[in-house]
Structures are given as C-alpha cells and as structure tokens.
Amino acid sequence: MSEQIVMGVDIGGTGIKGAPVDVERGKLTADRVRILTPNPSTPKAVAGVVVEVVDHFDWKGPVGTTFPAVVKDGVTLTAANVDKSWIGTDADALFTERLGMPVHMLNDADAAGLAEVRFGAGKDRGGVVVMITLGTGIGCGMFHDGVLIPNTELGHIEMDGKDAEKFAAEVVRERKALSWKEYAKRVEKYLLRLDALIWPDLFIIGGGISKEADKWLPHIRVRPELVPAALQNEAGIVGAAIAAAEGPS
Fold this sequence. Notes:
single chain; alpha/beta; Nucleotidyltransferase, domain 5; five-stranded mixed β-sheet; 16 strands
C-alpha cells in the first residue's frame, strides 16, 4: 500500500465512521463505513468499534482518529458528549494496543479544520479561519495563516447561562423540531458571539448538517465570510488521516 494512503476514523457522539484516505489529494479511496457509537461510550467499547471499522478494510498501517474532546499528547482530557471515563485516558496508547498499529488521536473539529484548510473551503486562506462543526455538540477548530491552534473549545462558551452547544448544536434543532430559519437564527447568535471575541476572517460550517447548508446558511447575517465545508461530513476522516501521516505536532 502506498505511504500516501492512511486510515482515518472519525469518532462522534452518535456514530463512528472511517475509510482509507489519499492524504496527497484529500480523497477517500473507498466508501466509508459507519457504525453507531456504543452506549455507554466507554474507551474500551469505542476502541472495539474502531477495530471493527479498521478491520473492514483489512487495514495494516498508521491510523488517525478524531474525538470530541480536548486531546493533548494523545490523552483525552474532557468528555462533554461521551462517557466520563474518557477523562484522563491515554487514547493513543489504548488504540495502538487494541489495533496493533500506530494510532494518533486529535480533537474532531481540529481534524475537520485540517482537511478544510488543506483541501477545502479554507485552502490558501490567510488570517483567522474558524471551523465550526454542528452535530451532537459544537466543535471548533481555529487556524491562523493555515496553522492550527489546537483544542479551542469554543462550543462551550456561555450563552444565556449555558453552553453554546446546548443552544445551537444540530441535535437541538432535531429535539426542538426547529424550522431551518429558526435554527439559522440560533447559529447566527452563536457566530456573532464568536465574532465579538476573536474577529475571524472566515467561518467554515461542517458536520452532517453542512450537506443541507443551502436551506439555512442564507438566513444568517454575520460580518465574516461564512461558507459550508467543501468536504462536508468526510472532513473529519480526511483530517484524522492527515494528522496520522504527519505525526504528532
């Protein structure tokens, strides 16, 4: 197998998906596989599903994984939408042992942002670029002149006395049966709050909901340029593979 092909696995609060990635082109080389995130989503249970995903492709080689948490040196330090037993887990060591091959983990929104800055909506863009992923929670990946500033947990800024993701994550739209316009106004309020804090040049909106961006993004009025993710919901897989190919920063 060419060294430019690396396995990427995107671990989310509801699903775990993965595929081999051509990291020189930012393209999946096979149809992705998706398996529901186990409940409870303990490290051991999640590692078991990652093994299933990787084994599906009969993969042997480096593996990159994302995770919805602060990840420093392969250790998960938070657990907003997964089992609390993740806090303090050496995920790189656990997954490397379970898969029998080198594994590198990073924050999920950081991974999606890496893919978009390298191959997608943020390519060749200078200044401050902020990747926002909307799903079970809100992920945030921030870049300055193409360089990642890791673990910016801006989905947890306070809005109306609670975490922003409790107000504007995609799961909130589903639970409250909000119209696209109603949901857009929630996301707009969140983005305006971010703009007041960090003054970005570009917002990229990712997550599965980016596939339907035409239904709600036009309703949002904010100062920075606002675009959907070009790689849509594959960005995390691609970014995970990039991170594994290039090694820990």
